[in-house]
Amino acid sequence: MPKVGMPDIRKPQLVKATMAVIERVGLHSASISLISKEAGVSTGIINHYFGGKHGLLEETMRAILRELSDTVKIKLSGLPADAHQQRIIGIVNANFEGFQAENKVAKTWLAFWSYSMHDAQLKRLQRVNEQRLLSHLRIELKALLPDEQANLVAHGIASLIDGIWLRGTLNPEGIDAEKAREIINDYLDKQLAFYHPSSL
């Protein structure tokens, strides 16, 4: 966590620099020296406010997670409360469009996923993000399916989001948000048809 007193203007500047350097050279080669040069600040500032590379990576991931959370909220706020299937797709879209689909953000996500397997604090952040996604999905799915099945389908959609997103970031052409929407809608339609066959 950054120390209290870190100028607000510096945080986005350093987060942006961290992502740019990770995109260019990868996480392991993304040294404090390279990041500070990219941001136009001294290495001392990073070490003082973030305690080094690990703290800066944590703050970078917090910034990305906040952006994702805000995007989901914006998507949902523009949809009727009873448009549950549309709201599910809104949640899906938030994971594949705009900021989250930028190459530098995608590469930082991949680095974060890898790093979090061996770091308790980053693993906790990943867990919070996972639970937030599942919670959003369950809220909408419980209006359409029995509780047990809603939970199962929420996990299914989350797995599809992660898998499609991972494949997209490793593809030179990037993430195909339309294809992601098509695949997840197909999965959801089949789940709903199984429990509500008479509605077809």
Automatic annotation (TrEMBL):
This is HTH-type transcriptional regulator BetI. The keyword Transcription applies. Residues 8-68 form the HTH tetR-type domain. One of its GO terms (molecular function) is transcription cis-regulatory region binding. GO terms for biological process: glycine betaine biosynthetic process from choline; negative regulation of DNA-templated transcription. It comes from Vibrio casei. Residues 31-50 bind DNA. Pathway: Amine and polyamine biosynthesis; betaine biosynthesis via choline pathway [regulation]. Transmembrane segments: none annotated. The keyword Transcription regulation applies. PROSITE patterns: HTH_TETR_1, HTH_TETR_2. Coiled coil: none annotated. Keywords: DNA-binding, Repressor, Transcription, Transcription regulation. Repressor involved in choline regulation of the bet genes. Repressor involved in the biosynthesis of the osmoprotectant glycine betaine. It represses transcription of the choline transporter BetT and the genes of BetAB involved in the synthesis of glycine betaine. It comes from the Bacteria.
